[in-house]
Amino acid sequence: GQQVMQIPQYQHVQEGEDFTTYCNSSTTLSNIQWYKQRPGGHPVFLIQLVKSGEVKKQKRLTFQFGEAKKNSSLHITATQTTDVGTYFCRDRDDKIIFGKGTRLHILP
Amino acid sequence: SQTIHQWPATLVQPVGSPLSLECTVEGTSNPNLYWYRQAAGRGLQLLFYSVGIGQISSEVPQNLSASRPQDRQFILSSKKLLLSDSGFYLCAWSLAHTEAFFGQGTRLTVV
User: Can you list the domains of chain B with their CATH numbers?
Assistant: First the structure.
């Protein structure tokens, strides 16, 4: 079955630095969704990308969907302590299989 | 608006004891329902999903079972807990091809 791989698994950044996590698939994705899970919390939906090459922004967060619809990225500009958490991507299908996530740690 | 309730929030159970975690959804009909387990600092492992009453698909062989007795009720059970069953259990719902909404989770510690 289709597998969505997410890298890196962990990332430590200094507060104010940028951060990027990548989601890669061996097959074409129908669309991709991104979620954020704060420490001790539950995953919360951030955004869905549908179109090839699509770019969406939410304040300091920029989401991209690759031209071939096989990869996606989430970029955070000038990280803040509130960005701490794990970011997950998933391909939209009925099973809702998530990538393993990227845990972001912010160093003050 | 739709809401999802999951309880209890925390649970400490002895090895060999039974388990029952309940999840209910309000404000929607015929949702897809899911149970996930998350080990500390790890990803989300899909355990079970259901597209309708009485329809359960298991993703991994394990010591757990799931049931969906009503449209908006999803129950995770075990007859005898193992130490390895400890973790953070999350229930979620979605409609077909939409985003998933998660419950607050149950932190289970098997001692």
Answer: 3-110 (2.60.40.10)
What is the nearest CA distance from B15 to chain A, expressed in angstroms?
24
Pick one of 3.30.70.380, 3.40.30.10, 2.60.40.10, 3.90.230.10 as the CATH number of A28-107.
2.60.40.10
- Sorting pLDDT into bands at 50, 70 and 90, what band is A2? low
Whose CA is closest to A98, among A1, A5, A7? A5
pLDDT tens per residue across span A56-101:
999 999 999 999 999 999 999 999 999 999 999 988 765 677 878 9
Burial class (CB in 10 A: 0-12, 13-18, 19+), B67: middle
Task: With CB atoms and an 8 Å threshold, state whether B44 touches A101.
Answer: yes
